[in-house]
Amino acid sequence: MPKKKYVIKLTDYERLELTRIIKTGTSPAKVISRANILLASDSSLGKPLTVAETAERFNTTPTTVQTVRTEFAKFGLHGALYRKKRETPPVPPKVDGNLEAYIISISCSEPPQGYERWTLRLIADKAVELGHIVGKNTKTSVMVGYIDGLASEELCQEVITRINNIELDAVLDSGYIEEYLDDNPLSPFPSIRFTERPDTVAAHLLEGGVTIIVNGSPQVLMAPTTLNSLLQSGEDYYQRYQVVILIRLMRWLAVFLSVSAPSLYVAFTTFHTEVIPTSLLLQIAQGREGIPYPAFAEVLFMDIAFEILREASLRMPQNIGPAISIVGVLVIGDAAVRGGLVSPIMIVVVGITAISNFAIPTTNLANAFRYWRFIMLAFAASFGLLGLVYGWLWLLLDLAAMKSFGVPFLSPFAPLKIEDWQDVILRVPWWSKSKSPFKTQKQAHSKSNISKELDKLRRNKK
Amino acid sequence: MTRLLLIVVLTGVLFLPGCWDRKEIDHIAFVLTYGVDQEKPGDFFHFTHLIGKPGMQGAGENGNGSDEAYYIVTNKSKASSMAMAGIMDFTPREMNLHHTSNVVLGEQLARNGVEEILDRGMRCRQCRPTINVFVATGSARELLQLSKSNLNLNPSRALVGLMEDTEGPFTAFPVQLIDFVKTFLAEGLDPVAPLVGLKGDVNKIANDEGENDENQSENPSDEQEIKINGLAVFRDDKLVGLLHGEEARGILWGMGKKKGRFVIDYPSPGKTTISNISNKSRAKVEINDLNMPVLILEVEAKGILSDWSRLTERIDIKPHLADTIRQAMKEKIEKEIKQVALVVQKELKADVFGFGQVLSRNHPEIWKEIKDDWNELYSILDLKIIVKTEIVGTGFIR
Q1: Does A294 contact B24 at a Cβ distance shorter than 8 Å?
Q2: What is the mean pLDDT of chain B?
Q3: B245-398: CATH, from 1.20.1560.10, 2.60.40.10, 3.40.50.1240, 3.30.300.210
Q4: What are the residue ranges of helices labelled H in A292-331?
């Protein structure tokens, strides 16, 4: 089949646009070259150059010229000039996911003096100067960020010391060094916070915290952290405070439910049937009728099934993800009930638990609570409500014993500091709030100093 | 060391209840109401347990069956504590009394004395002391077996609803087991309990005896509904009298338990309805010159004028009309209390208003002397009834 010949006829507007692209020169070279080819091939103002002539004039091959012409005819001006952008990549997304993953978070954090903004090179250089290179083989650069005068010197020194002590062959992500910085390696609870959001990083720095940025990772580590800050989300500060208070209360409730909803179900139905209203009780009894396993096994079965489903759906390509979720949740759930494997109320309980778990804003905290859920379940199944209380006692003791870089994990609840409750469950409006939440025992700067620094910063910003 | 000890002690606590309390919900039969009958004193107790059937509770997928949502097991035993023993031989589930909400005492049992049943109700570990007490007209077993609730899934729920969910009840008031027992144990105070029966039977008896029930439904399909039939009056633990209709209402006024609506015959011809009545009463005992106790019953009643048969007469601009209504209301209440107080005092000799208790508190020295013969003495004492009434909401309604 002979090659089809395309005749290019440009409109005035198109010609103008192409000329603009060539003259301003800010576009990529490829676009400029394509624009040249198109202008040369234009037949509306006279005889155009041939394919070979065009190729020679702009130092390209005839094939390219032919391709550009074909694309113009098929897709129009835009299609010929620019490459088609790929939609969401068909690869499994990362497990950790704020929906908006800002890979640019590094460059948006505060730049060093003398530079207007970050470049990757700059980050690497700076880190080399400070000597923070980890990983024998990967030589990954790590940058410790803090605001001088706001963050306590002790805290910064501690972080830097810990980073210098890292001995690893390869550091591919911030998760690798998190375990080295961790204060409580035996606890499932994180003592360092992750984020991908530049605004969260900025807020953390302004509160006197330290951030650790690892080259090549979108996740910024933030220290110190508390249970309270792990339960906060960046959106909290962009909404009206009345709403935020309700949302935060709901989050604490979600924590409670995600840890103990299944165990409450088991404790109530197998030990304390007297606390369930009579009609609901008979309804539950109806669902349990003919179920071969004890309530505990039923809960465990459904919980594990859900965890598998959750893990699987993270790895699924986006195109079929929702379909599989629907099959998993609706079809299997319904079939399990109809098949007499689990009772309908059980599905409700597992559903509430799962949803509650997703309401916890920090993934690694949510995972810690997931882990505790199974411990609680074992306690509740063996000892009823008393076991559940014992489990919570244990959980709270674990939390109360934790410290993150010298800050008690449960502060400001334990030790109790009412004056720090401005941004805990309540969020007082900005105009009535002025304090740094992180205070180690030997705070280097007095309150007034901090507010002076903050004022200075605010002025500089303006 | 301390820490280790603490861990051991705290963990040890867990084994106090332990796994052996574990019982799957589908291995338990929940008793919703139980009834007790007895023919002669010292005879067998006949127990009737109404058990909720799982799977027949309406909302669920299988709940629309034509089958009953409950089933009834009966057995007899010599001792009340052995009520369950016979049932367990043919009921393959553990009987559980946690969700029992009513106990129905048969009329004959009540006449024989209910002390043993009360004892079981209070001593049993699973039973709630707040369950409702009823006395059945006739036998409790027949009431539970024959009754059919059109609105509720089971007669148990119907009994609770009658006591708790309506504007009334007009001729009875809810009595919880704990209150019944307290009243029974208190000196100089006798218990009452609501009387229930099947609607068909109750109406038939009322017609045979020539009593006219003001508010009778004539729908044959609800002949088997449970109906409140008045009050059962006890002396100590024995039933001594059944009061119906107006008589029961008199007791309610006197005890300060009257709720709901109330009709007075004013202006004649015509009727006035007073609703949302708040009713208080106070028993007093005074010692007169002859050193004899005089019983005084102070009753307060306050209501909203809800229906006034004359639209044209505006009470808000004619305040004397309100006074007249108040007066009519007072007369009516006084009449109702007086009628029944005579019956209760002279015939039944039951001190339901608690004059004896008041006397024992205010004049313990007199009480000591007379307490053994109190019920006899009480029946011959003078009784004064003072009624105060108030009416609000008399404004003209557009």
Answers
A1: yes
A2: 84
A3: 3.30.300.210
A4: 295-315, 321-326
Are B100 and B176 in contact, with CB atoms under 8 Å apart? Answer: no
Neighbours of A344 (CB within 10 A): 18
Q: Where in chain B do CATH 3.30.300.210 domains reside?
A: 245-398
Q: Which residues of A touch B17 (CB under 8 A)?
A: 271, 383-384, 386
pTM summary value: 0.74
B30 touches chain A (CB under 8 A): yes
Q: How far is A184 from chain B (nearest CA, A)?
A: 20
Interface test with B, best of A263, A271, A286, A394 (most B CBs within 10 A): A286
Assigned token pair, B44: 């067998």
Q: For residue A28, what are the domain limits?
A: 12-81
Per-block mean pLDDT, blocks of 10 residues, chain B (398 long): 85 74 86 91 89 65 56 86 78 88 93 90 88 92 87 87 85 92 91 90 68 61 84 91 88 88 77 84 88 90 81 71 86 90 89 91 88 87 90 71
B13 in contact with A, Cβ within 8 Å: yes
H/E segment holding residue B195 = strand B192-198
Q: Other C-beta atoms within 10 Å of A220: how many?
A: 26
The answer to whether the beta carbons of residues B181 and B84 sit under 8 Å apart is no
Q: How many CB atoms lie within 10 A of CB A205?
A: 19
List B23's β-bridge partners, or say none. none
- Report CB contact under 8 Å: A271, B17: yes
CA B150/CA B154 separation, integer angstroms:
9
What contacts A254, CB < 8 A, 6 or more positions away? A356, A357, A359, A360
- Work out the minimum CA distance from A252 to partner chain B, whole angstroms: 27
Residues B98, A273: C-beta atoms closer than 8 Å: yes
Does B19 sit within 8 Å of A273, measured CB to CB? no
Whether chain A has a CB inside 8 Å of the CB on B70: the answer is no
Structure tokens at B244: 């119906």
